[in-house]
Structures are given as structure tokens and as C-alpha cells.
Amino acid sequence: METMLQSSLVSAMIISGNGFVFSTLALDIFVLLATFLFTWMVLRPAAHFYIHATSLDKIAKLGKKHWFYGHIKMLGSTTNDHLKSMARISQSFPVMSNVWNGPIISVLNLYHHDAALPLLSSGAPKVEIGYKFIRPWIGDGLLVSKGKKWKRNRQLLTPAFHHKTLKPYTAIFNATAKVLLDKWKHQINTPLEIHEPVSLMTLDTILQCAMSSKTDCQLSSGKHTYIAAVRALSENLTKRFFNPLYLIDWIYKLTSAGRAFYRAADVVHLEAEKIIADRRKTLKKCDRANENKHASEDFTTTKRTHLDFLDILLQTTDEDGKGLTDKEIRDEVDTFLFEGHDTTASGDHEIIFC
């Protein structure tokens, strides 16, 4: 009996020992795999960006920088501070400057057209580090996408940029601008806050021109939900570039700025989906009216010599007969709503201010 007990204990120790060896081997493999992935996915890109940023210093070095913050501290903590700082920098460096946004990433700022021309005419690939921050907002549309996807979607959307499509929009430009001027004519000789009304005017324009959506948003009272969401997105996205730790996605998502950014992104996505759904309903009504040979108001307004941007998104197909997915359509609507109103409004603000 004693012999059998000793034999059982030895067997248990061997099994336990084998299990310990196996566990140690599995842990070693896991650590090696984790180290490889961290090196490949984090350290390798970081080294690439650092080397690239350092090479830009050879042609546009701004000056002494902090080892961790780079030039962030000298730019200020708000967007207004940033703009004023960049204006001062452009006076000392009239051609270009390399601004470090942390320990490994820099942004080359161009101030002279001779420096901008080679960059604008370059066929260099898009840098993922810059575009990945805006992707939760506008998706993988033409601004962000690259390679085969960009080429395919650009070909599908080419008719939307034809001059015959764009020419009729001038009447809409004039009409939306008149609404803005009619609002302002009652405020002569008084200070004007131009951001909100100009943004509403450009939003009204892009909605009517590209999305066939007439909302009378310029006449609405109070803050417009979409405009407020875009402002929140812009402000909280900018904060990522003023704090190196915010460049890490999971840290940014835990911050108040990150949470506000993703809440605002949900708002603009819902707005885009509503616009798409409304247009789909209108097009279906038009199809039924055409089949039944009954004229309706919707059909009359849609039966044109051209299709607008959203119509093309909904109806276009490639050589294989495949159209854009619902996600791709929303990404393009998000992209063009943002670029079509916010970027244009920013330019209008500067012109009116000057």
C-alpha cells in the first residue's frame, strides 16, 4: 500500500512538472509574440516617423525643442493661441517650418507658394498617422482612402465633378448668400459674430447642391445640431495634437476630449444617414411615378439633365456591376458635408474678416 502511494506521488510530480514546463513554454511564446507585435506595430512606425521628422529638420528646423513636448508648449493651449503662434513663426520662417508635435512626430508647415507647389504636385502616398485621427469622423472616403479603393471610388464619382453638373449650382450659391445678407442687413453698424451664420450658409449650400436637401437651416433659431457637432469634433480633434499622450488611441478615448469627440461623431453620422434615407425615399417615389407615368412634385424636381453628388453615390456601379456599400456612401457624405461646408466657411471667415 505504501509503495503504491509513493508511486502515485511520483507520477503526480511528473505530471505537475510537465504541466509547469508546458506553462512556462507557452508563456515564453506569448511574451515573444507580444514583443514582436509591439515592435512591429508600435516601435517600427515610431522609428520611421522619428527618422522622417528628423530629416525635415535639415531643411526647415524651427529651433530648440523639448524632448517630450517638442514645440507644443510654445504654440499655446488653445486654437487661437496656435493660430497666433503660427503667424509669428511664419514671419521668422517665411518659407516653411518643421513643428514637432511630441517626441517622434512633426508637421511641416508651408507658407510660400514656391514651397507648396512641389508638395501639391507630388504623387507621394498619404501618411496614415495624420488621417487615422479623422477616420472615426469621416470614415474612409476620398479624402482618407488610398490605393485601389480611392481609384475605384474616384472613377465612380467623376461625373459629380463635371462642369455641366456644377454649373447649375451658381443659382443656389446666389440664393443661399442672399439669405445670409438679408439676415445681416438688419445689423448694420453693429458687431457681427460671423462663424455660425457663415457656417449655416455653406451648410445650406452643400445640402442643396450635393444632397438635394432643402432644410432652411439658415432660418432656424438657436444652435444647429450639425454645426455644433462639427465644432466639437474640430476642437477635440485639435487637442490630440497638443498632448503627445492623446496620440495613443486608447488613452484618448478615456479622456473627456475623446468621449466628446466620439459623441459628436455619432451626431454627424446620424445626420448623414438621415439625408441618405430621405433621398432614397424620394428616388423610389420618382421611380414609381415614372413607371406609372404620373407626374409628381418629387419626380418633377428630380428629373433633370444631371444627377447630383448623392444621386450618383446611390446609383453608380463599376464595370462589375457593383455599387457602393451603405458604409461607403455614408463615408462620402460625411466627407463632403464636412469639406463642403466647414472648409469653405473657414475661407469665407478669413475673407470677410480681412
UniProtKB/TrEMBL annotation:
It comes from the Eukaryota. The keyword NAD does not apply. SUPFAM superfamilies: Cytochrome P450 (SSF48264). It comes from Clavelina lepadiformis (Light-bulb sea squirt). This is Cytochrome P450. Belongs to the cytochrome P450 family. Its cofactor is heme. The chain crosses the membrane at residues 20-43. Pfam families: p450. Keywords: Heme, Iron, Membrane, Metal-binding, Monooxygenase, Oxidoreductase, Transmembrane, Transmembrane helix.
